[in-house]
Specification:
The protein is mostly helical. The chain contains eight helices and no strands. The chain has one domain. The chain starts with a helix and ends in a 6-residue tail after the last helix.
């Protein structure tokens, strides 16, 4: 394997582990997650918590296994865009300005996902085994991943309002 194949595999799997861990946390604490979603301006907070937990679990598994990797990356971009817009943009760049709130984290995850979608999942992936990795990377992967921003905008327009509005 070439060095780029090793590092892209490590990056893909790591972003997948992060997303899976978030999904597990949200699923295990669904009532608390729903309460939090409501407190930050989401309509139907229980449904938002369920969709968030399921989505993060599916995204994480997609990236860890390297199956439909580009669509997993799309999901990361969408989730991180929602998180950025609804929470993190208000707190500044650094996570230490307000605990766990700076946007450096969510933007970094989103950009990592765009890189994975563009470069491809690497040879240690189900996509590579199935022969679809090359069909879903490059400009196609970039376009699909960045499309997560549009999906996030749609979700936000339908389900979120700034607290106090």
């Amino acid at each position: 394997m070439e060095p780029i194949e090793v590092v892209i595999t490590v990056l893909r799997v790591w972003v997948g582990v992060v997303m899976l861990a978030h999904g597990v946390n949200h699923a295990r604490k669904l009532a608390g997650t729903a309460k939090w979603f409501g407190s930050v301006g989401f309509k139907a907070p229980r449904r938002q918590a369920q969709v968030s937990a399921f989505g993060e679990l599916a995204i994480g598994l997609s990236l860890i296994l390297g199956v439909l990797t580009t669509f997993g990356a799309f999901g990361v971009v969408a989730v991180m865009t929602v998180a950025f817009w609804s929470i993190h943009r208000f707190a500044g760049f650094f996570v230490f300005h307000r605990p766990d709130e700076g946007y450096e984290y969510v933007v970094t995850l989103a950009l990592a996902a765009v890189v994975v979608a563009t470069v491809g999942p690497g040879p240690l992936s189900i996509d590579a085994v199935l022969g679809v990795a090359d069909e879903l990377d490059g400009w196609t992967g970039l376009a699909v991943a960045v499309g997560g921003v549009l999906a996030a905008a749609g979700q936000l327009s339908l389900t979120w309002r700034e607290p106090g509005d």
